[in-house]
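Hi everyone,

Forwarding the result from last night's run.
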Amino acid sequence: MTCATGREYDLPHTVFLRRVAAAPSGASSDARLGQGAFLALRLLDLLRPEARPVHADAFEYQRRATERLCHQLPVDETETAHLIGLVHSAADAFREHDVRLAVPALLAYGHYLEDQLHLEEALDVLESTLDVGAEQLGASDAVAVHLRMGRVNRKLNRFDDGDAQYALAAVLAESTGDVHSALLSRVGRAISTQARGNLAEAERLFRELSTDARAANERDIEARVHHALGTTLATRGELAGGTVHVWQSVQLYEDGSSALRALQDLGAMLLAMGRVDDAEHALSVVVRRGGARDNITNALIELMHCASYRRDRVGFERRRAECESLTDGMPPNILVDFYFKAGVGNARFGNFGKARSLMATALNIAGRNALREFEFRIERIMAGLRDCEDKVALKLDGAAEPAIRNNALEEVSASLANLG
């Protein structure tokens, strides 16, 4: 599921017009928002250095037309507010001859698009921020843009592009003495190392970062590192140790959305150890509190997995249908995880033909997107299906039964019980 960014087309921001083309009708909310985004960003293009000077009357004509369209967009959509904000910020920047006035609205919109899993669109907006700001863009804003571009590229499994952006962010951060951002760029590159499958190197990088973050009194970085170290250990098979690190990150995070991401990962790890009650508690908190769309989607997939683990067919089908309704917005790694775990669930209920079909779909998507760890895992499970079709109570996910127990895990369980 690789997609081209809008920059690969002759006309900037064409990526937003894909929403218009994919919508059921031109009058649908998605089509209108896509068109509004395209026009708002075209207005901001007039602030680029190569577009100057623009006659005031020409700018005002385009501004009024764009603002009129944006005010006709659905008022209950958060994106509408972002687009109106873009138009207002463009007007302020043009009037004051200061493109920096447009940067906060662009960054906020890019963040929103990333949270909604419109990753290609988020990249387009972030690239526009660099283009519009050009030489006037402040160092802190430039660092923020490059860090976010690194993260979005990483989410799209474009690891080389992501690492390049992290490296640019590091150079800028170090030149201004921004210790926090410099450490953050190292965290991003270490997570890319983990995602590429080099777990031993990722663990080494995270342990080194943990020491450096603590020495710099960077609590947020320390939280991120514990989180990533925990998931790395879990992937290496050290689930109990990984769980303790992820729970430490939940306690360290001061940002609520980051804590919920860690809690979602914690739920998945608890399930892998057979601690289903604890897993469902953690995951339900994530869904109930809301937040970033990808995190909620991951939590719903894990709750589907919990239901099949319990052999709760009604619960499994309910969660599966809920997840399936979100597939259009899933990036490749989440889409693979959904089809794989839906396949596992069908096998647990004895529907091996459906299980094989779903896992084949997951394997195909993983192959197209170079998700090697998923490929190995799915191939191993599919090979096992051939020998297990007469065993409905199939153990596919390697979860331990009975559940893994030790004092540290019991402390995590007790703490989870106190979460509201």
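The longest helix spans residues 78-96.

Cheers,
N.
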